[in-house]
């Protein structure tokens, strides 16, 4: 039996950033992850960092590569009916912007910081379980390299994503779940091709949504709306490029530059909120507590905001014995979550075709897009949500 102050389940962005923030406050933690280090680093996921997430990475000393390699974008394009329209987010928000920097790069930087701290981070842990959550001394148990471990904790942080074990460990009846599934998914690719637009292009076409994004000056990231049960084997490279060209090309001659596809996969889309974000001494953060559809690029940023607040709350408890910030953690987190849920749902419904929609719905979507790109008020509303509200 060993002891720590905070047992952290999951080494995604939430668990790793929480471990780092606690380390900076001199608070001990043990991070337990069930996958390999390589898998965690290579998992291709989000790519858009809000200003607040960028500022956080810099403030806590893990921003060197982000500053050197991240791509600051002051605007985005919204495309429909063959035309691209730019939304100048920096101009509309008093200078705030987003930065393109892959989630796997964020995770790489945070793993390096953890390893430098010398505090424990166990990859490939099996049979991870949490116990005695309603007591003052919850326990974390797991198997690692053939040995059984038991860690007595003051708190446990469930940072183990949507499919983790922490949220299901909360006894029935303590959580209220709010959920919506969407009748479509995203087929995403990475390609060795230089970005042909300096900023992201979100497009609604008669054949459905498509998104042009990037990872670097040589790598493009693209997505297209597909069916939730889409078989990736039915999408040879040429079919993907043909569909992307059809949905993204605009009348001014713009189209994505094509190149070798190095990765492809299908991501389901869901909105999900579990309330409250804690039970006893277990606190949930990131995807373990909530999921947004990716259209607003909010998932990773919400995870960062959760753990920033959770680290402050744990800090206050250990330094002064005050429980106030811990007690307010869920209420404040849910306010931010619901704001992101509303925005992500709105972006998703404005830019995708659902099978049960008719010609009226399509006309309404075009009217909404036309209003968006012609009204400074509407563009400002999108911009301030897209760049993200400051951490609070
Ligand atoms: P995760 O990143 O899921 O990390 C949880 C960690 O816990 C994982 O490392 C997992 O292996 C580990 N874990 C799970 N179970 C256990 C267990 N029993 N024991 C120990 N460890 C465990 N967001 C965007 O904004 N844009 C995107 O394009 C985008 N694409 C996505 C694609 C996919 C396939 C997925 C799943 C998500 C995507 N997201 C995207 C959302 C974004 O990546 C997440 O919001 C973000 O990863 C949340 O971070 P997290 O640390 O809370 O959870
Ligand atoms: C990316 C992902 C998103 O969900 C999004 O809205 C914009 C960009 C990306 O992976 O680059």
Question: What does the model show?
Answer:
With 392 residues, the chain is α+β, with helices and mostly antiparallel strands. It is built from eleven helices and 19 strands. The strands form three sheets. Strands 1, 2, 8, 9, 10, 11, 17 and 18 form an eight-stranded mixed beta sheet that branches. An eight-stranded mixed beta sheet has the order 6-5-13-14-15-12-16-19, sandwiched between helices. It has a three-stranded antiparallel beta sheet with strand order 3-7-4. 44% of the residues are buried. The mean pLDDT is 97. It binds flavin-adenine dinucleotide and 3,4-dihydroxybenzoic acid. Flavin-adenine dinucleotide is lined by residues 9-15, 32-35, 40, 45-46, 48, 103, 125, 128, 159-161, 164-165, 267, 286-287, 294, 297-300, 303. Residues 46-48, 200, 211, 213, 221, 294-295, 297 line the site of 3,4-dihydroxybenzoic acid.
């Amino acid at each position: 039996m060993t002891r720590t102050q905070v047992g952290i389940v999951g080494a995604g962005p939430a668990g790793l950033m929480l471990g780092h923030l606690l380390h900076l406050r001199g608070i001990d933690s043990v991070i337990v992850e069930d996958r390999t280090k390589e898998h965690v680093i290579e998992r291709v996921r989000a790519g858009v960092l809000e200003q607040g997430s960028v500022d956080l990475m810099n403030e806590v000393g893990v921003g060197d590569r982000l500053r050197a390699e991240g791509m600051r974008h002051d605007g985005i394009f919204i495309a429909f009916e063959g035309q691209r329209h730019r939304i100048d987010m920096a101009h509309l928000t008093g200078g705030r912007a987003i930065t393109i920097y892959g989630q796997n790069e964020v995770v790489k930087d945070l793993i390096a910081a953890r390893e430098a701290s010398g505090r424990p981070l166990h990859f490939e842990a099996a049979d991870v379980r949490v116990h005695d959550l309603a007591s003052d001394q919850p326990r974390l148990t797991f198997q690692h390299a053939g040995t059984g471990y038991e860690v007595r904790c003051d708190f446990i942080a469930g940072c183990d994503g949507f499919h983790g074990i922490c949220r299901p460990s909360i006894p029935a009846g303590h959580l209220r779940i709010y959920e919506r599934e969407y009748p479509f998914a995203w087929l995403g690719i990475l390609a060795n091709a230089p970005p042909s637009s300096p900023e992201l292009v979100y497009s609604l076409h008669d054949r459905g949504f498509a998104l042009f994004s990037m990872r670097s000056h040589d790598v493009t990231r693209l997505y297209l709306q597909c069916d939730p049960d889409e078989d990736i084997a039915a999408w040879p490279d040429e079919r993907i490029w043909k569909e992307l060209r059809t949905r993204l090309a605009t009348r001014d001659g713009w189209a994505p530059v094509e190149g070798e596809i190095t990765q492809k996969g299908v991501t389901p889309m869901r909105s999900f909120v579990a309330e409250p974000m804690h039970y006893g001494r277990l606190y949930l953060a990131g995807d373990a507590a909530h999921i947004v559809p990716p259209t607003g690029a909010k998932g990773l940023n919400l995870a960062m905001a959760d753990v920033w607040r959770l680290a402050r709350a744990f800090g206050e408890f250990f330094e002064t014995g005050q429980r106030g910030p811990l007690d307010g953690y869920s209420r404040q987190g849910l306010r931010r979550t619901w704001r992101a849920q509303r925005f992500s749902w709105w972006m998703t419904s404005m830019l995708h075709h659902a099978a049960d929609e008719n010609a009226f719905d399509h006309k309404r979507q075009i009217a909404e897009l036309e209003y968006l790109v012609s009204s400074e008020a509407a563009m400002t509303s999108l911009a301030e949500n897209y760049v993200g509200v400051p951490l609070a």
